[in-house]
Design brief:
With about 210 residues, the chain is of the alpha/beta class. It has 6 helices and 10 strands; from the N terminus they run E-H-E-H-E-E-E-H-E-H-E-H-E-H-E-E. It has a single domain (about 10-80, about 125-205), classed as Rossmann fold (3-Layer(aba) Sandwich), CATH 3.40.50.150. The model has no long low-confidence stretch (mean pLDDT about 95).
Length: about 210
């Protein structure tokens, strides 16, 4: 990712997984690498959102040296989903960290096939605008497994202050144009590759 200019020092990752301790990802996570390479005095707060309880112990271990890191164990959903809890699906073959676990069953099946006998757990939900209320966010990184487009299109940027937005683009499918238009109409401009170390993220900056 390109170096970003300074800002509030508040960084949020939605879909934090196991941080940089997932061996199946070669112990790499772009957001984690970006933050850990920053000078400590640049970091005011780190908010990590992860709905999968299988990942929480390693996520805590990943950020144990950062007292200003807060972990929220919940799933981010669009405002149209009013349920306080929702089912999240995963394929046992995706163990141990279930990177493609999703509230969208078809998203998991796209990776592991329709024959995979999916398991499910019930997770608490949260709306992103509510979670970020009152925060002046320097960087918001999203990887929400199948609903990135729905969450971004749902955002009212009058209610959430974000300087840089990094999000996975490979699953936006037919909503990609709508997502880009929504961001541009809210005065964001494309800046290139985002935080994902595989290059799967777009980076947008508020003008």
């Amino acid at each position: 990712m390109q170096n970003i200019e300074g800002g509030s020092g508040i960084f949020i990752q939605v879909g934090a997984g196991a941080g940089d301790l997932d061996v199946r990802a070669n112990c790499r996570d772009g957001f984690t690498e970006f933050i850990k390479n920053l000078p400590r005095d640049r970091i005011q707060k780190i908010i990590l959102v992860e709905p999968n309880p299988f990942n929480i112990p390693l996520l805590r271990e990943c950020w144990k040296d950062y007292a200003n890191a807060i972990i929220y164990e919940c799933g981010i959903v669009p405002k149209s989903i009013a349920n306080e809890y929702i089912e999240m699906y995963y394929c046992p073959d995706d163990a141990p960290h279930f990177q493609v676990a999703s509230i969208v069953k078809e998203h998991v099946q796209k990776h592991y096939g329709n024959d995979c006998k999916l398991e499910k757990i019930v997770i608490p939900t949260q709306n992103l605008e509510t979670l970020c209320k009152g925060e002046e966010i320097e960087l918001l990184a999203l990887d929400i497994e199948g609903i990135d487009a729905d969450v971004i299109l749902d955002l009212d940027f009058d209610n959430i202050r974000v300087k840089y937005l990094s999000f996975e683009h490979i699953h936006l499918e037919d909503k990609k144009t709508d997502v880009i238009h929504h961001l541009e109409s809210n005065h964001f401009e494309y800046r290139g590759v985002g935080v994902d170390h595989n290059g799967f993220d777009y980076l947008f900056c508020k003008k």
